[in-house]
Structure formats: C-alpha cells, structure tokens
Amino acid sequence: MISWKSPESLWLSQIEKVQPRKTADRDMHFDVAIAGGGYSGLWTAFYLKTVDPSLKIAIFDAKYAGFGASGRNGGWASTLFASSLTSMAERFSKSSAINLYCELHNSLTEIEKVIRANDIDADFHKGGTITVARNSSQLKRAEDTVNEYRNFGFDTYSLLEQSKVIERINVPSAIGGTYTTECARIQPAKLVRGLANLVEEIGVEIYEKSLVSELSKNYLKVNGNKVAADVVVEATEGYRCRIKSSRRRTIPIYSLMIATRRLSKAEIETVGLRDYETFADERNLIIYGQRSNDDRIVFGGRGAPYHFGSEILPKFDSEESIFNLLEETLYDLIPSLRGVEIEYKWGGALAVPRDFLSFVEYDGKSYARLGGYVGDGVTTSNLAARTLADLILGRSSSLTSLPIVNPQRRNWEIEPLRSIGINLGIAGTMRKDKLENQGQDGDLVTKFTDSLMNY
Ligand SMILES: Cc1cc2nc3c(=O)[nH]c(=O)nc-3n(C[C@H](O)[C@H](O)[C@H](O)COP(=O)(O)OP(=O)(O)OC[C@H]3O[C@@H](n4cnc5c(N)ncnc54)[C@H](O)[C@@H]3O)c2cc1C
User: Fold this and answer.
1) Cβ 39 vs Cβ 377: under 8 Å
2) Which ligand 1 atom minimizes the distance to the CA of 222?
3) Which of 1, 70, 123, 258 to mutate to test the pocket of ligand 1 (most atoms within 8 A of CB)?
4) What is the pLDDT of residues 338-379, one digit of tens each?
5) Which atom of ligand 1 is nearest to the CA of 211?
6) CB within 8 A of 212, min separation 6: which ones?
7) How far is the CA of 191 from the centre of ligand 1 (A)?
8) Mutate-to-test residue for ligand 1 from 378, 381, 382, highest number of ligand atoms within 8 A of CB
9) How far apart are CA 240 and CA 91, in angstroms?
C-alpha cells in the first residue's frame, strides 16, 4: 500500500486541502482504464477524450490525482530529455534525435496553450533556465552543451560569461554558464490538480483511494473489484516496480527538495532570478531550483540511496542527511541565503529505465504503458500522452514514429547486482564532483562507476 503519510510539500500547502474523489467500489467497464492519476494518466485521458468524446474513460489512483511525482516535483517544465541528443543520434539517427527535440519544444508550447485556454492557475512562467559553471570541468560541460545543440541545428542554448551569469543569479563562485529560454517555472501541484479538474469536466471519471492490485490486458483489479476495459494504460511511474509484469522495467530513484521561507524584497533582489529563471549548476549529481511565485527559493537534488528490491516507503521521502546536504549546497551556491530558514522538506520517487529512454509502449490493441522520464517528466509526459493517444486511436502522426515508441527494452539487473551497481553509481557521481572541484576530471574509480550505468 502507498501510505498517505508523506511530509507535506510546499506545493501541497499552497493548494486547497485535497478532498478525495469517489472510490471504486464495484465491478465496472470502460473503453480505456488508466492506472495512475499523475500527468501521464491525466494527459492521456485528456487527449483521448478531446479527440473522441464518445470514449468512456476512467482513471484510478491509489491515493489521489497528483499524489506521486506530479504533485511534488521541482516545477521545471523544460525540454530536457534524459538521453542526450548525441546518444539518441547514435542509438537511432540524427533525424530521430532532432524530431524528438522539436516535439519536446512543441509539448512545452502545448502545455502553456492548455493551461491558458482552460484558466489553470499553475504559476506558469517561461523565464528559461540559467545553469552555472563553477569549475573548469563544469565550464567545459557548459560549452559542450551549447555546441551539441548547435550541431543538431538548435540555437536554444547560449554561453554566458561570468558577469552575465551573476546578473541573473547571484552565485559569486560562477565562472560562466549557459542560458536557455526552453523552460517554464510551474507550481506542480496546481498543474496536476487543475488538470484533474479539467479532465473531469470533459467527462473522464476519476476514482481516488482506488488501488489497482492487478493489471493485465483488458483487466484491472481495483479495490478488489473487476474493471474490464478495451485498453488498459499503466501510468504509475515511480511505483511501476510494484506491478508484477513491469517490476524491472524501471527503478524508483528518490529526489528530495527543500524550500526556504518567503524572502523579503531586498533578499530576493540580492538573489536575482528576476525573470523567475529555473536554475542549476553543471555538477554531475543533478540539482535544480526555482523562485516560487511567493518568493521562496525551492531547491532539490539527487543523492538519496536506491533501496534494495526497488522498495518504496514513505520514510524514504525524507532523508535528513540529504536535506542537510541540499541546504549546504544551496548556501554554497547562493551565499546570501545562508541562515535563511528552510520551511519545507519533502521528496518523491521518479522512474529510471535501464537505458534512460522514456517510453510509450502499446501492443496495438489492449495494453499500454508510458513513462520512464527520469527527472524530466513534466513536459515529456505531455509528449508521451499525446503520442499514446494517437497510437490508441490508430492515428499515424509525427509522434507515432518517434524513437520513444515501443523501443527495444532492457530490464534492470536482478538483485543484489542492481542495488550494488546503482548505489556505487551514485557514490561515483558524488566523487566525480568532488574531484572536479579539486581540478581533476575523475579517476579510475569514477571511470569504473560510470561504466556500471552504461547499457
Ligand atoms: C522530487 C522530484 C522532483 C522532480 N522535478 C522535476 C522537474 O523539475 N521537472 C521535470 O520535468 N520532472 C521532474 N520530476 C519528474 C516528474 O515529476 C515525473 O516524471 C512526472 O511527474 C511523472 O508523472 P507520472 O504521471 O508518470 O507519475 P506520477 O506523478 O508519479 O503518478 C503516478 C500515480 O500513480 C498512482 N499509483 C501508483 N501505483 C498505483 C496503483 N497500484 N494503483 C493506482 N494508482 C497507483 C500514484 O498514486 C501516483 O499518483 C521530479 C520528480 C521528483 C520526485
């Protein structure tokens, strides 16, 4: 069972108290039955119902729409994708990589369009992303990013010199960085709850406190009841590993977040982020931040351990050592914040496929699965859902030939290899950052730990 007891996020505290919707308490039949009420499930329902209003669609969520990563994330609606353009080109083709990136761009535009057309108040603001480089290895990565996008024909990233970085965000240790317009800051819980209301308004049924305990072609068992459906969609992302047939398809990796108290006008003025840019630096272990609408700095990062057997427990949402690390990292990055109280701490699980490639899988008649977004699901889930809607409706489109459609799959290793490999990988990434801060690029140990995550 997924417990209700997770530490309240800033995002949840900013919306009306969640009142659970109706619960599945009888046998039912639908055209499409979706397990999971996050962005993936909701966007899938939205596009199916918009194109074919006659479809009878239901979403079942074990807790409530937005309980998972969709209600807790860092609020970057970006065009980032977990596999780089270069690795996509190597694995598929240059044109596949280009098409995918163009469709991610269109998805960000699409999210904004739907939000505006339906008055969803999600604090959407497209102020771009500033990524800071603080040592020579990081600066090299910043240059590589700009060049990589240029090589694929995109001028969406530009290199910034030190003073231009500091103009946008007061990171005194910055030596340079990049800026891209390709990101909007959102309030994730407002987006997911707004989306849930929207799909309900257009006639999709949402059942909450409705645990799907079995999931197969044409059939779901929900709270012990039989739900028959022409098409079953698995949209459970971080929790996918609990489904027998998908157990090793993705692993849950925890990302944790903190939020400061509201900053005064003078304090926020010192930090910068005047255009509500999302921000990060070029370290290997991912960190991400945003300025919220009420002038807090909201900041998150990886580093929490992977738990043996892909276990997911509410207590993993808070790892005090990682919260402390995040706090210290934030103060180190933006020293003017040192001493500012942290008011919220929370976390959640995201899903990582073995090859880091997000997927939309459909067997052509009765079963579909979408996800594996790593930490970039806000925009990618919209792309995946529109793609899945086209596949289910039998519409051939520019989306249905994307490399995320029915990719060759490779499952994660069995335990204990899996947990040993992943945790060594995390430790190796942290070590690499430490070495880079000391002016070294890495060593034999980090080469070895890097190789563990290759596929
Ligand atoms: C802390 C954190 C920060 C992140 N930051 C960003 C970011 O800034 N930008 C970005 O692009 N991405 C970010 N991500 C990733 C992004 O949030 C996710 O990729 C995205 O929200 C996934 O949406 P989803 O609908 O697929 O899954 P989820 O939102 O996790 O939804 C899955 C739903 O399935 C339900 N469920 C699970 N099992 C069952 C079951 N058996 N029966 C019924 N229901 C079930 C859950 O209750 C949940 O509501 C972050 C993730 C985390 C955890």
Assistant:
1) yes
2) 42
3) 70
4) 999 999 999 999 999 999 999 999 999 999 999 999 999 999
5) 42
6) 35, 60, 62, 220, 221, 222, 236
7) 13
8) 378
9) 25
3-class DSSP state of 60: strand
Q: Token match 């990081």: residue?
A: 138
Q: Which residue intervals of 52-183 are DSSP H helices?
A: 85-91, 94-117, 136-151, 162-168
CA distance 70 to 396: 28
What is the band of 6 on the pLDDT scale with cuts at 50, 70, 90?
low
Of the candidates 425, 420, 410, the one whose C-alpha atom is nearest the C-alpha of residue 308 is 420
Beta bridge partners of 177: 132, 160
What stretch of H or E contains 206?
strand 205-207
Backbone angles phi, psi at 181, to 5 degrees: -80, -10
Q: Which amino acid is at 69?
A: A
Question: Looking at the predicted structure, is the pLDDT value of residue 24 above 90?
Answer: yes
Could you tell me the two tokens for 107?
């998805």
β-sheet bridge partners, residue 93: none
Q: Is the CB of 60 under 6 A from ligand 1?
A: yes
**74 in ligand 1 pocket by Cβ < 6 Å?**
yes
Interval between CA 381 and ligand 1 midpoint (Å): 10
72 CB near ligand 1 (under 6 Å): yes
Instruction: Work out whether the CA dihedral 385, 386, 390, 396 comes out positive or negative.
Output: negative
* SS3 of residue 397 by DSSP: coil
Q: What angle do CA 451, 83, 436 make, to 5 degrees?
A: 55
**Which ligand 1 atom sits closest to the C-alpha of 74?**
8
Q: What ligand 1 atom has the least distance to the C-alpha of 374? A: 19
User: Rounded to the nearest 10 degrees, what angle do helices 39-51 and 377-392 cross at?
Assistant: 40
Ligand 1 atom closest to the CA of 349, numbered from 1 = 53
Q: Is the pLDDT of residue 4 over 60?
A: no
> Which residues lie below 8 Å from residue 103, measured CB to CB, with a gap of 6+?
383, 398, 399, 402
Tell me the average pLDDT across 380-386: 98
Beta pairing, strands 57-60 & 205-207? parallel
* Cα 180 to ligand 1 centre (Å): 25
First to last CA, the chain: 32
Are the beta carbons of 142 and 163 closer than 8 angstroms?
no
- Residue matched to tokens 């272990």: 285
User: Would you call the peptide bond into 20 cis, given omega within 30 degrees of 0 as the criterion?
Assistant: no
Q: What is the pLDDT of residues 247-266, one digit of tens each?
A: 999 999 999 999 999 999 99
Q: Is the pLDDT of residue 1 over 50?
A: no
Quick one: tokens of 265?
């006008």
